[in-house]
Design goal:
CATH superfamily of chain A: P-loop containing nucleotide triphosphate hydrolases
Radius of gyration of chain B: 21 Å
Shape of chain A: globular
CATH architecture of chain A: 3-Layer(aba) Sandwich
Helix content of chain A: 40-55%
Order of helices and strands of chain B: HHHEHEEEHHHEEEEEEEEEEEEEEEEHHH
Distance between the termini of chain A: 30 Å
Structural class of chain A: alpha/beta
Strand content of chain A: 25-35%
CATH topology of chain A: Rossmann fold
Largest sheet of chain A: 6 strands, mixed
Strand order of the largest sheet of chain A: 6-9-10-3-11-12
Number of domains of chain B: 2
Distance between the termini of chain B: 46 Å
Number of strands of chain A: 12
Largest interface: A-B, 31 and 24 residues
Number of domains of chain A: 1
Shape of chain B: globular
Oligomer: heterodimer
Bound molecules: adenosine-5'-triphosphate, magnesium ion
Radius of gyration of chain A: 18 Å
Strand content of chain B: 35-45%
Chain lengths: 251, 440
């Protein structure tokens, strides 16, 4: 699904990602952990096509195509979805309007006709129920005046409706209380399938109790310094990041 | 303007003077004479005047617009008029500045409510008109008001008695169909104690150059509630001056929704005087493209304590268009506990577009809450990326965000039929992808 090879990224002349290697196969769940400022969001942004970064080396291949070569909206239509760490408020554009625009452009991209209005409403309402949201949120402006938790839930709602192939979740669990975390996790788990992959950036092992990852990677100073199975998260929780960084320095 | 040009207009005046309404009313004749003298001496306002700094109306000098003497001077298509008439509304139609009884809809008015042409009001209720004409808009204010007082050929007169709540809005449809015409109209709206009314002013014209000068005086008596709407969609070659001057009595409420879409050069004045604990809300949206120049000048004067004013004006400027917003808030020494907020936000869609924004607070009381904010900028790149990450291409995202920015003002309208008319006009500016009307 996704191959990242020796990816180097900088902002201005500041190097942020310094040689990332990562392979994600269909159906896999990868957790990325690491200290603040290590480059986790930068990686998520680079994958979804945010401007302002310079790729100074390496490559990213998505479903056999050069991902870095595609405009952000093309990546999205091809199935890359980023659940933002800080979702943006869009006053004046209602949630349901954006969902419809997004879904229809995916359908168009796949050579399908516009979604039927009734089918769309049924689909959206199903997912709203799945995430235990109030239907009123659909008619409110995207993220405007939403609480932190509501914004995160709204990101997952979009993800559930757009059914992407590669789901990148940047700290979706940060700021969620335990009940909301359970609901969001159930939403994510309901999306799991053999051909859908997840990249979950998180600081908290608690998320991984609900969504069990196949791999855990530690990103520090712009590099993946350690990778392991789900048990690595527990170890990190116990010992903090310093031991992997020290480990790395020793190696 | 040079006085030479002013006197050219003044000479022209003599050709129509005897056909203007109110010939038999000495007080009106005197008012017109004084106004004409003032106009002949000063002409139209010049950019040397502080409140006209950004707007040069000298182009009006170069063209000599002429008033049409009668209604029949212009060809008017009744079907075209109907398109612009609102359902469920009383409608007064002025064509080239003259009332058309034929096109107007004034049936089923509640008893004691007066909705009629200004000419008729001068004939049948001249005492009432005399009490109000020029009281909110004194002609000394500036040359356009003086010009209007001298030249007005007709207009709308509304009087709603105390405690009466009008369930339907009153629409004033101003149409200009003649090239080089001047349409000069004067309107008076009076809501007596506790009365409630909604009035909609619309300005439309055929595709030619002409000059509109419209002055509306509004009197909101104690605890009354008036909502005034204006949609200016003049032809893109037209010159428009439209002024609304509002006097609010104690505990009254006034709301204005001001949409400025048309005209090559358009200036709108909104001046409100607030008495004790009265409230006003001024909303505005201006969309400028090509070489349009759109100027909105607002002045809110808090004269007495506990008044509340809220103001939000938004502008979207494309191509080489220029938008001007001057917002003055004056808080008199007496007006303690005033609560005032003023905001002006401008979106520039091209490098050549320009927004001049000038909020002015003049506060003479010491215990007040006054806030103001101004922005001039482009679309937010973070928002564009967010939409792109949701499959929307960049151009569509820009359209969506621009439309949303403007639509916030449209959504404040509570009258469905008028809301839809305004929305239709806004959508005309978004022919591109991004705004799907069916989904709104
Ligand atoms: N646009 C930018 N300009 C300058 N520096 C940037 C920019 N974006 C990111 N950085 C820097 O790059 C580094 C990595 O930032 P990034 O947001 O990717 O970290 P993160 O791992 O997501 O951190 P957190 O856990 O706090 O979310 C930080 O030092 C940050 O300050
Ligand atoms: Mg981050």
């Amino acid at each position: 699904m996704l191959q990242i090879k020796d990816l180097h990224v900088s902002v201005g002349d500041k190097a942020i990602l310094k040689g990332i290697n990562l392979e994600i196969k269909p159906g896999e769940i990868h957790a990325i952990m690491g200290p603040n400022g290590s480059g986790k969001s930068t990686l998520s942004h680079i994958l979804s096509g945010k401007s302002g970064y310079t790729v100074t080396g390496g490559s990213v291949t998505y479903q056999g195509k050069d991902l870095l070569d595609m405009a952000p909206e093309i990546r999205a239509r091809e199935g890359v979805f980023l659940a933002f760490q800080y979702p943006v408020e869009i006053p004046g554009v209602s949630n349901i309007y954006l969902l419809k625009a997004a879904l229809n452009s995916i359908r168009k991209h796949q050579g399908q006709s516009e979604v039927d209005a009734m089918d769309f409403l049924t689909l959206v309402k199903d997912k709203v129920r799945l995430l235990e949201m109030d239907e009123k949120f659909l008619y409110r402006a995207v993220n405007e005046g939403f609480s932190g938790g509501e914004k995160k839930r709204n990101e997952i709602l979009q993800m559930a409706i757009l059914e992407p192939k590669l789901c990148i979740m940047d700290e979706t669990d940060s700021g969620l209380d335990i009940d909301a975390l359970k609901i969001v996790s159930e939403g994510v788990n309901s999306l799991r399938s053999a051909d859908r992959s997840f990249v979950m950036v998180t600081h908290y092992q608690r998320l991984l109790d609900y969504i069990k990852p196949d791999f855990v990677h530690v990103l520090a100073h712009g590099q993946i310094v350690k990778s392991g199975g789900a048990e690595l998260a527990l170890e990190l929780e116990e010992k903090g990041y310093s031991w992997v960084e020290v480990d790395q320095a020793a190696a | 303007m040079t006085t030479a040009t002013a006197s050219r207009y003044a000479a022209e005046y003599q050709t129509i003077a005897s056909s203007l309404p109110g010939q038999s009313l000495p007080w009106l004749q005197q008012l017109r004479r004084e106004a004409l003298e003032q106009f002949s001496a000063q002409g139209f306002p010049s950019p040397r005047e502080e409140e006209w700094r950004y707007t040069n109306v000298s182009a009006i000098e170069k063209k000599l617009f002429t008033p049409s003497l009668t209604l029949t001077a212009g060809y008017i298509d009744a079907e075209w008029v109907k398109i612009h008439q609102l359902d469920e509304a009383w409608s007064v139609v002025l064509v080239n500045g003259h009332f058309s009884a034929e096109l107007s809809v004034l049936t089923d008015l509640p008893e004691a409510v007066l909705v009629m042409s200004m000419a008729e009001a001068l004939a049948s209720h001249s005492d009432k008109v005399e009490n109000y004409l020029g009281k909110a808009a004194p002609h000394k204010e500036h040359g356009f008001i003086a010009f209007n007082a001298a030249w007005f050929s007709d207009g709308l007169f509304v009087h709603v008695p105390a405690k009466l709540v009008l369930d339907r809005p009153i629409q004033l449809l101003n149409l200009v169909s003649d090239s080089d015409a001047i349409a000069t109209t004067r309107n008076i709206i009076i809501a007596e104690e506790m009365a409630e009314i909604k009035v909609i002013e619309m300005f439309i014209g055929t595709d030619c150059a002409y000059l509109t000068t419209a002055v509306t005086e509004v009197f909101v008596e104690k605890n009354a509630n008036v909502t005034l709407h204006k949609m200016q969609s003049e032809s893109d070659k037209a010159y428009h001056f439209g002024g609304c001057y509002i006097k609010q009595a104690r505990d009254s409420r006034f709301t204005h929704h001001n949409f400025a879409f048309g005209g090559l050069l358009a200036r709108c004045d909104i001046h409100v005087d607030l008495d004790h604990a009265s409230e006003c809300e001024l909303n505005g949206l201006y969309l400028g493209a090509k070489r349009q120049h759109i100027d909105n000048h607002t002045r809110i004067t808090h004269l007495k304590p506990h008044g509340i004013s809220r103001e939000l004006y938004k502008g979207v400027l494309d191509d080489r268009a220029r938008g001007v917003f001057q917002g003055r808030v004056i808080v008199a020494e007496d007006a303690q506990k005033t609560d005032s907020q003023m905001n002006n936000r401008n979106l520039l869609l091209s490098n050549d577009a320009e927004a001049d924004t000038k909020p002015q607070l003049e506060i003479y009381a010491d215990d007040v809450k006054c806030a103001h904010g101004v922005t001039v900028g482009q679309l937010d790149e973070k928002s564009i990326f967010y939409l792109q990450s949701r499959c929307v291409n960049e151009e569509t995202a820009r359209n969506m965000l621009t439309f949303a920015f403007a639509n916030e003002m449209v959504d404040k309208i509570n009258i469905k039929s008028f809301h839809d008319k305004v929305l239709e006009q806004v959508l005309l500016r978004f022919p591109q992808e991004g705004v799907n009307k069916e989904w709104l």
